[in-house]
Specification:
Blueprint lengths: L16 H8 L8 E5 L5 E5 L4 E4 L17 H8 L5 H18 L11 H8 L5 E7 L2 H9 L7 H25 L13 H22 L7 E6 L3 E6 L10 H28 L2 H21 L7 H9 L5 H13 L6 H4 L3 H36 L1
Helix pairs in contact: 1-3, 2-3, 4-11, 5-7, 6-8, 7-8, 8-9, 8-10, 11-13
């Protein structure tokens, strides 16, 4: 029989609110929560209603069947204590369950967070404002993708990357040799529809790989990365289900790889087309280089960043770093996951988080300066 742990008499501070909630609650997993395995066979909770994924430690999995609403938090702590200090067990279990609650995995509605804790939670997000344009991506792509699933993914990747490498070489040669007699083209505006078409093909590449891997693309549209930088996107949230590192990495790299094919085609035009067509192609090459650089920028949630995270078996390193930085600056208790990190990883979080914030500041300043220049030119 379980034994209820006596309640401490001390008044709970704002920071220990998770413990205060935990003692009398009867934690219960939502009915639509599914336990599955993701990258490197790590356990994940999938919340059906919200479509969110929550990573949990392997040591947490045996606890999940006990979250059935029968026991209070204090009773659970007493049952699993194993002779350890009651306060320590309560604190750790409380913070674990509070994290599940805030992620929406428990029947108990998430606590509304404001002030410092709200800021720390905000820092973990992907920071992308979305405007969905279609939610029918999978239905459209499946007839085209189904026949090629019989071809091994390694073969398809080898062909795709080989063509991209040729494109990269041709584009680089054109960029270094084709601009000697360059003149500002009279129809430079043609660059914009070509760039938009390339961005659409970039996102389509991600969607095709998702469909090949049977990863649903929930939606596709346009958005503002970091709330200021216009981007196209496909919602690859369900890529959390992909267990193989290389498959998940190529899912992220599919767009940049496809960009190099466009880079090569543009380079071929710049090298061979006379007059204005060649001048437009050369100018387009510069835009394409900038797009590639932004797509592999390690201090933004870029494709290159996601690919590196997949290859090393990490998830949301940027969010973790910014969250750790926020907890330290705001003097909040660390979450169980952050508290368990090594000192070397914490130092990395500090420097990487600062680099992310510095880039955001530069980006905002650059956009503000550009907008100011355009307003001045129009006035």
């Amino acid at each position: 029989m379980s034994t209820t742990v006596p309640r401490r008499e001390a008044t709970e501070s704002a920071e220990s609110a998770p413990v205060a909630w935990f003692r009398e609650c009867r934690p219960r997993l939502r009915d639509d929560v599914e336990l599955l395995e993701g990258l490197d066979e790590r356990p994940l909770l999938f919340i059906g209603e919200s479509g969110r994924y929550v990573a949990v430690g392997r040591d947490v999995v045996p606890l999940l069947p006990r979250l059935d609403g029968r026991c209070t938090g204090s009773e659970l702590a007493a049952e699993i204590g194993g002779g350890r200090p009651e306060d320590l067990v309560e604190d750790r279990l409380a913070r674990l369950l509070h994290g599940l609650r805030q992620a929406g995995a428990l029947a108990e509605p998430p606590e509304r967070l404001g002030g410092r804790r709200g800021v720390a939670r905000f820092m973990r997000r992907e920071h992308l404002l979305r405007l969905p344009l279609t939610r029918s991506v999978g239905r459209v792509l499946e007839p085209a993708v189904a026949p090629i699933r019989s071809v091994p993914g390694s073969v398809l990747v080898a062909i795709w990357t080989s063509v991209a490498l040729v494109g990269l070489v041709v584009g680089a040669v054109a960029l270094t040799t084709a601009g000697a007699g360059w003149q500002p083209p009279a129809h430079a505006w043609l660059i914009y529809p070509i760039v938009f078409a390339q961005i659409a093909a970039h996102e389509l590449s991600h969607a095709l790989v998702c469909q090949y891997l049977r990863v649903p693309v929930r939606e596709a549209g346009i958005g503002l990365m970091l709330y200021v930088m216009p981007v196209g996107y496909v919602d690859r949230t369900d890529a959390y289900r992909v267990q193989d590192r290389r498959s998940r990495a190529f899912l992220s790299l599919a767009g940049p790889v496809n960009d190099q094919i466009w880079f090569g085609a543009t380079g071929a035009v710049a090298l061979t087309a006379p007059g204005e067509a060649g001048d437009i192609a050369f100018l387009l090459l510069i835009f394409q280089v900038l797009l590639t650089v932004m797509n592999v920028n390690p201090v933004t949630p870029s494709d290159g960043y996601h690919a590196v995270c997949a290859l090393v078996g990490e998830v949301n390193v940027r969010g973790q770093a910014l969250s750790y930085l926020a907890h330290r600056v705001l003097r909040l208790p660390l979450t169980p996951a952050l508290a368990a990190t090594t000192s070397a990883r914490r130092r990395f979080f500090v420097w990487y988080g600062l680099a992310c914030l510095a880039f955001l500041a530069l980006l905002v300043a650059g956009i503000a300066r550009t907008v100011g220049f355009l307003i001045g030119a129009i006035a």
